Every structure is written in C-alpha cells, then in structure tokens.
C-alpha cells in the first residue's frame, strides 16, 4: 500500500498512545523514515506488520484495530490534500457510495500504482443499504466496516454496519440506518 496509509496509522497511534509507543512499534517492525513516504508503494506485508504491532499495543485483536483504523482514515483523508475530493464525492451516504469508485479513480491519478477496491450500492430500502465491496485483497473486511462507519459519522448518520454475505472476491455489507 501507499505510504499514506502508514502515515495515517502513525498519526492514529501517536494520537492514541503517544510518540514513544510509535517509536517502539517502528523498532519492533524494523520501520524507518524510508517506510513512511506518502507517495511510495510498499508491500502489503509491511502495512499488515505495522497494523498488527499497533493492535498489540492497543490491546485489541487485529480486526478491531483495522476497524478503528478505517474510522480514523476517513478523518485523516478529509484533513489531507484529498479533503476537497471527499466534499465533491457526496454530502449524503447514498450519493457518496455511488460516487466512491469515481473518487478512487481520481486518487489513482495521483497514485497510479494504487490497487483500489470497488463499491456498488445494490439496494436501498427502508433505511437499509446493501453495499457490495470487491477487491483483489483479502482480510480487510473490518477495515471496510470502519470506513463505512467513519463515512456515516462524517455525513451525520448513525446506525450499524455488518456483513450480509460473502462470495468469491465480493463481500456485501448491510448498513442499517437509525432513522425515525
Ligand atoms: C479521500 C478519501 C480517500 C482516499 C484519498 C483514499 C485512497 C486510497 C488509497 C491511496 C488506497 C491504497 C491503495 C493502494 O495503495 O494500493 C485506498 C485503499 C482502500 N480504500 Fe480508499 N480512499 C479514500 C476513501 C475511502 C472510503 C470512504 C472508502 C470506503 C468507504 C475506501 C475504501 C478503501 C479500501 C477498502 C481500500 C483497501 C484496498 C482494497 O480493499 O483492495 N476509501 N484508498
């Protein structure tokens, strides 16, 4: 993954546990400044090693740390140079999800080696959205849950996100919105 993800994780960990803990994580994973360049691409194993060391320090299972990181990523991205792109992508959840692939395509213009996922809104009924996620990566299910939760926070929605079904490289997520 692009180093932007590593920098976002560093920021999350510094915010939560302070710079000394991040320094320990860097030592434990043999990470240095050369692994934290926003526009460099690193093997996913590097990203996963950083997440799993962070999870240990947070006292969380890796999946829970990934979910927290997904939520954090939305806030991190909106403060980055991609903030305006997020504003254009949508001001409500349905519009945002429908434009998410277009948004990632514009990210790819700046980061040509990014392997971005694809999201499709399959259904919207009575405050329940069904969203299909496709990716050539595996193991990021809870990251996606965190991202969708972060998006809901950003757009003033509350509710629950869960996995509805899995098939091949596709996972369908159900979002139940609290609306009265
Ligand atoms: C401005 C906001 C965003 C930016 C700049 C951004 C950018 C990126 C970048 C650079 C990657 C890494 C690709 C790589 O290095 O190969 C990525 C991956 C990913 N993005 Fe986004 N993204 C944003 C918002 C979102 C949102 C809101 C979602 C979902 C709701 C999302 C879902 C994902 C997922 C799941 C991945 C992991 C890759 C995979 O599943 O294969 N992103 N994104």
Molecular structure report:
The chain is of the alpha+beta class and 180 residues long. The chain has two domains: 57 residues, no CATH class; 94 residues, Alpha-Beta Complex (H-NOX domain). The protein has a four-stranded antiparallel β-sheet with strand order 1-2-4-3, covered by helices on one side. The longest helix is centred in the middle third of the chain and has 18 residues. The radius of gyration is 16 Å and the shape is globular. The protein starts with a helix and ends with a strand. The site of protoporphyrin IX containing FE (HEM) has 23 residues, from helix 4, helix 5, helix 6 and helix 7.
Task: Give a short summary of the structure.
With 180 residues, this protein is an alpha+beta fold. It has helices at 3-17, 19-28, 44-58, 62-79, 83-89, 93-110, 141-154; strands at 118-125, 128-134, 159-167, 170-177.
What profile does the largest beta sheet have?
4 strands, antiparallel
Strand content: 15-25%
Calculate the terminal CA-CA distance, rounded to whole Å: 40 Å
Q: If you consult CATH, what is the topology of the largest domain?
A: H-NOX domain
Bound molecules: protoporphyrin IX containing FE
* Discrete helix count: 7
Can you tell me the CATH superfamily of the largest domain?
H-NOX domain
Radius of gyration: 16 Å
CATH class of the largest domain: Alpha Beta
> Segments where pLDDT lies below 50 for 5+ residues?
none
Strand order of the largest sheet: 1-2-4-3
Q: Secondary-structure element order, as H and E?
A: HHHHHHEEHEE
Amount of helix: 40-55%
CATH architecture of the largest domain: Alpha-Beta Complex
Number of strands: 4
Give the mean pLDDT.
Answer: 97
Counting structural domains, the number is 2
Shape: globular
